[in-house]
Amino acid sequence: VNVHNLVRGLSPYPAAWTTFEQDGREPITMKIFETAIVEWKGALSPGKFTIDEGHLYVDCIDNRIEILTLQAAGKKRMPTADFLRGLK
């Protein structure tokens, strides 16, 4: 809940940000503008990103949040599904 509230409090300016790392590729810095809390009953690994069927989730200490809107460095603001379609 704290991460979700932080994103809400910083959106749209200055915006919360994070680094998204892929195996063997350069990390992508991105601003996060909108999130949603997801009901999750499984185990959580804080800081871990999960991509599932066009959705991007990040595990926090007490819950999982879905990143809904973001802006990758050098790109314009977009829905997360569009960002994921552009990943190789």
Word description of this protein:
The chain is of the alpha+beta class. The protein contains two helices and six strands. Strands 1, 2, 3, 4, 5 and 6 form a six-stranded antiparallel beta sheet that branches. A hairpin with a 7-residue loop joins strand 1 (16-20) and strand 2 (28-38). The longest helix is centred in the N-terminal third of the chain and has 9 residues, at 2-10. It is globular, with a radius of gyration of 12 Å. The model has no long low-confidence stretch (mean pLDDT 90).
Task: Describe the structure concisely.
This protein is an alpha+beta fold and 88 residues long. It is built from two helices and six strands.
Q: Can you count the helices?
A: 2
- SSE sequence, one letter per element: HEEEEEEH
Low-confidence stretches: none
How is the quaternary structure best described? single chain
N- and C-termini, Cα separation:
31 Å
Quick check: average pLDDT? 90
Strand pairing plus helix content: what structural class? alpha+beta
Shape designation: globular
What level of helicity do the residues show? Answer: 10-25%
Beta percentage is: 35-45%
Rg calc: 12 Å
Biggest sheet architecture: 6 strands, antiparallel
Give the tally of β-strands.
6
Layout of strands and helices, then pairs:
Elements: H1 2-10, E1 16-20, E2 28-38, E3 49-52, E4 55-59, E5 64-72, E6 78-79, H2 80-86
Which descriptors apply to this entry?
single chain, 88 residues, alpha+beta, 6-stranded antiparallel sheet, 2 helices, 41% strand, globular
